[in-house]
Amino acid sequence: MTEWLLNGRAFLLSLLVIFILGYAAQNTLSLRYIDAVRTEERALVTERLGNVRYQLESLITNNLSLINGVAAFVSSYPDFTPAQFQTYAQTVLSREPSLVNLALAPNLVVSQIYPLAGNEAALGLNYLQNADQRDAVLRVVESGEMVIAGPLQLVQGGFAFVGRAPIYVTAANGEKQLWGIVSAPILAENIYRDAGLLDDDQEIRIAIRGRNGLGNQGDFFFGDQEIVNNPRLVSMPVNIGGGSWEIVAIPTQDMLAGNPLVTVVRVFTTIAVLAILIMLGLARRQVDRDKAFKQIIFRNEKFLRAVETVSHVGGWRMNSKLMFTELSDQARSILDLPAGDEMVSLQAFCSAFDESSAEVMRNQFVNAIKFGERFDTEMCMHLLDGSTQWLHLKAEVLDTASKDRELMGAIQDVSLAKKAESLIEYQANYDALTGLPNRALFRDRLDTALLAAQRHSTKLAVMFIDVDNFKSVNDNLGHDAGDALLIEVSQRIQDCIRETDTVARYSGDEFVVIIGDINSTSVVGRIANDMSEMMNEPFHPTERQVYCTVSIGISLFPDDADDVETLIIKADQAMYEVKKDGRNGWQFYTAQMKIESEYRHHLYNELLNALNENQLQVYFQPIIDVSTGSISECEALVRWQKQDGQWVSPEEFISVAEERGIINRIDFLVLQSACESIQKLNKTLITDLRLSVNVSSRLLHLRDLVAQDWLAHIRTLQGLKLTVEITERILVEDAQSARRILDELHQLGVNISIDDFGTGYSGLSYFSQFPVSSMKIDRSFINKIGVSATEEALIESMVLMAGKLNLRVVAEGVETAEQLAFLSKLGCSFVQGYYLAKPMPYEELVEFAKVNIINGKSLAEDLSSAS
Ligand code: C2E
Ligand code: MG
Ligand code: MG
User: Fold this and answer.
1) Antiparallel, parallel or unpaired: β 550-557 and 585-588
2) Is the pLDDT higher at 446 or at 475?
């Protein structure tokens, strides 16, 4: 109810009602008080006035009775003598000093006055002829009663009432007969004084009206007539014989005036109302505050609940009796307890866990309460249903000094985080595809295995296994098939080793194996052999079966190295040797490999130097059109003569440059230089020779800045016919990225030629996928001409195929006339080889071209003679 009152409009209404009630109460109280005061005041005035009236009536009655006495005297002795009258009057006047004189007026004419002295003027006054007195006198006569008139101004000064009484005498016939009147002025001053009207300490102000005894009809003759208008007036009649006066009075002082009580009542009620209003206002403010506070608490609670839900953190509070006095909803939900507010025992708190887990948990709390120790721990709890739950429990001790200590803390279900943690750990250490340890974990394991081997003085082997031609499986059968193949390979590797050995996926198609605790190297050889043989079985990455081999390199601890890094490098080098020897096999690392490796490293440094110092040159080898015998094209071939004059074969340094990633620089340099030379030559000799440049697979696959410069340079070429020679490997290894560049080259009018055709990969599908325009049959076929009928047949079919595919055919490495003749007979259009021209520097090329073109010396003659 109070709440309702303090709310909104009701509050304003209640303020108004209280204000009105307060005002009414204040008025009622003060009016009642004023009434009471006025009643008291009236009583006082009435009492005082009553006294005065009584006095007045007594005094007048007294005087009148004396006058009446005179009348009675005359009635009784109508024949009195003036002396008798004087004696009688003297007696009367001596008894009543207010009486001024006594005058007798037989037949209404004044005939005797006592005392006479000073009143002589009145003798002989005929009342009926005196305007001032006639009415009053007639009233006396008519009424037959004594009448008081006045007050009148006395001739001798002062004011006086005149009391007149008729005097009757009994006539001879026995009838009552008016004799005349007796009149006596009564000194008003005396009457006033004796009645107390002149007292100074009067509590009332009095006025009297009724001049000539006319009651309230007569004029005021005493006091301030203004008081008659005062609402506090009290009036009463004064009987004065044959007439009356009205005596009125008001209190001299207002009993309310200067009386603080009314003000006190008003002030008090006002203060009371104000106090109530203020209290209400304060209460309202308090209610508002409470409301705001409640809202904050509500919001905070809601916020905390939301935070709890989001973070899966619950709160709790435990007393010294091991009871959870508070347990948040989230905490209850984590512990699978029903929601509610009631306290929870430690037993119930642990009810979801199996006995051993519950005991560990209980001990945690019991000890914390017992020893006042905070805790912050993660616990793996086994639930009754057999699953596990990771809980993070935190507790703070609230009062360490007292025995009645309490614990307050948080409980968090961190199972998901733990799962994520272990997943992250797994992902950081294991390969997602094969489930094998990854490179990082492999290094760790190898490190540990090395320490163990060192400690126990045992041997250890590292195998580096690379899947042969994996790229072609990936490209031809798709990545899913590639993945499936890798999984199968990893399983076959695992099948060949002991469980204690480690196999890891090192990178894409590379696996590494640690074989520990070996007593002879032949064991490792046997394992490697088993692996090779196992791989010879067909794989089934798709419905189609696939054949796939591996190359395995092996390094040994402590023979080859005693650290992780070197052991891996050496196994890799051994594997590289296997690859070089035609793949599908295994090999131990040898000292020779080391020498070769060091030589290559040395060569690399020298090559880098040569490149920086511009020591590389470009030679040109003419390609001859068989039909005309004239030069149609030149192949640019890089040459390196060391400062000591020794020539390094391109076969040798180009593989090093490819390995170390500087081949793009060489290709770019050759392109720039060769273009410049051939453009110059064409200009000088007014010819249109085509230039053919070699590019490494890296240039098409490694999108470095140099590769971009290379491409940009080709875009700027104008009027120069260009062929780019690539090996089949490029098209197989990373078909997608090669395709983009080859397409652009094709757009730019550049011919794409397949170099060393026949030595690479079996698939021929790239002819339909890429914009290839010519093929160069590898030297290894050409030099079998006249030696092997099979090779000859192969050459023939290659030329036939090229014809069908509309490709230009160039035969490389033509060294003899016989070879030239054979090729010419087959219809091979272009030839290149020592027999026709060796690679030569630019200056020689110019001379050769001059002879060939300008001098018109035609090879056609040679050709015809050769055939
Ligand atoms: P290639 O592109 O197949 O070049 C033809 C190779 O055969 C050249 O060897 C050439 O000198 C040699 N040759 C030509 N006619 C005969 C012959 O009648 N008998 C014999 N025995 N050999 C002949 P070279 O110049 O030693 O180059 C070897 C390989 O190095 C080249 O094979 C090419 O793959 C690569 N190469 C050369 N220059 C460059 C280059 O500037 N960039 C790239 N990426 N590779 C290059
Ligand atoms: Mg070539
Ligand atoms: Mg070649």
Assistant:
1) parallel
2) 446
